[in-house]
Task: structure prediction
Amino acid sequence: QRHYCRATRLDPQVVEAWIAFGASFAACDESDQALASFRAAQRLAPGDPTSLLYIGMEYLRTNHTSLAEHFLLAAHQASRGTHRLCLNELGVWQLSEKNYDTASLWFLRTLASTSIET
Result:
């Protein structure tokens, strides 16, 4: 975290540094700081689905499924359905909701999008 903190201080306009900083907080189970970092990234790049995705993943990790749904679907829409990690996380969200058939469809879409480019 110390390195990411320094990176965001040296250049606070780097979206990737804020996302990495947030991911380091999430790994330490510091959800509030993680969400603050992801929101900072979202303010810097409002059209980028990555920060929305990471906000949704953090809400999913902390069992705030309605907020996770909102942000994961927003990331999916912003990426026009092409972000593989977003497709996968939508499957994870459906799995947490015990919607196994829908989850399997999201996972199959993830696999299909992977096989198209290889």
Summary: The chain has a mean pLDDT of 90.
